[in-house]
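2024-03-11 09:14:02 INFO receiving multi-entity request
2024-03-11 09:14:02 INFO entity count = two
2024-03-11 09:14:03 INFO echoing inputs for audit
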Amino acid sequence: MSGDIWRVIESPQNPRAKLWADILDGRGIKRHGEFLLAGRKSVPEALARHGGRFHALIAADPGEAAGLALPDHIDRFRVTRSLFDRLDVSGTGFPLLVGKVPEMTTADLAAPPVGIELIVALGDPANLGALFRSAAAFGARRIVLMEEAAHPFHPKALRAAANAQFELELMRGPSWAALDAAQGPIFALDAGGEDMGAFVWPKALRLVLGEEGKGLPAGLKVKRLAVPMTGAVESLNATVAASLALFSHFLASR
Amino acid sequence: MSGDIWRVIESPQNPRAKLWADILDGRGIKRHGEFLLAGRKSVPEALARHGGRFHALIAADPGEAAGLALPDHIDRFRVTRSLFDRLDVSGTGFPLLVGKVPEMTTADLAAPPVGIELIVALGDPANLGALFRSAAAFGARRIVLMEEAAHPFHPKALRAAANAQFELELMRGPSWAALDAAQGPIFALDAGGEDMGAFVWPKALRLVLGEEGKGLPAGLKVKRLAVPMTGAVESLNATVAASLALFSHFLASR
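2024-03-11 09:21:47 INFO inference complete, emitting structure
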């Protein structure tokens, strides 16, 4: 298809329109293996740096895509404003990219960790996306996503990640039971643990981040680290707590 | 009104029902001076520790309030499931409390700061609420809310704050121009600033947190601190960045 031709989709019953409406949540993304990327800053940046990951662009008004350097392999679709608004869940008002979810292999925890590796069960996609940003910022390369975790390509996760997901190696997690056999030091954040403010970080380790508000699965055999706090609140936002650990490890490693 | 009587509201046109539907966003909360608090953990905890701040409880099924120790001054309202679901924006399925927004006076920045004081313009209520948790956790007592900031009693802010808002002194901000005359050291987080990882924190200071994605107003006369990062991403989530500063200050002060 030539680079400057726009296909028009007007019916919400169009198979492509239906697929796109379906990939607004984790289940649909899993089923179809595709995702939508939004953002006035994220879309041009992703096109420039990771154009090969995308195969379509969706706009209500082709004029809005005028400034975008679109490679030829990306199909352009013009849709009705109402369909566009339904797909543009963050209300960016800017063309959306459609990409293929990369293959995620299951992590082999019998191999030792490289640097700080995260084992994550965060269920809130916005928390997960913000965590991706912190992980990329502080040199964590590998993120192992447990079954409870939100989908890493959920629109809210991508919005919060601001393209950090492309800087990381995302892997599927094994069962919680498999963590008992994991190589190398393995830690989790927990109010009852050792004071993280005085902790001497090993260079390589695995850090487990449980589901928000639920803590860790019972019986998990990991060392516990606690973020020191005043006691005025019981806990921090899960991504904030994880980011403090990533930051501390980063400072200790440089 | 006796403590165990439930008033029934079935019409969405009922004045109370209309008021409650109105206080789901910052504008309505400002207009009516009331807010809704939700959460299976936050509601019982707020009742036990701050019962005097609330005057009504809303449930679709009084049985769901059975375990709550409700003081006599709190009116009980039974509403239809559809009205309840509309008010329960976080989908907690647990009775909601109605409270009065406390008076917020305008901060006098000509007085020196006590400890670390935050001057905040975060527009995302979930970011703001999570920041409240971090502030309470790391000993910041006073939060000065600039005009751009989300309403501190927005349902999403309260959900993310997990009652931390009650541990803080929330104040209205003066104009940005007034910051030039502020007493004591005043800092902001900015990618071009001094390395925060090596920074020697003063005990008392003001820390400015600009709007997400917009940075600081041009010409603001503050010292700049940068969170050291790998360079793989341009920036962190605003609440994460602020929490790193609060944590670093807290560690340096203990």
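2024-03-11 09:21:48 INFO post-check: The longest strand of chain B covers residues 186-195.
2024-03-11 09:21:48 INFO post-check: Helices of chain B lie at 15-22, 26-32, 42-50, 81-87, 125-137, 155-161, 238-253.
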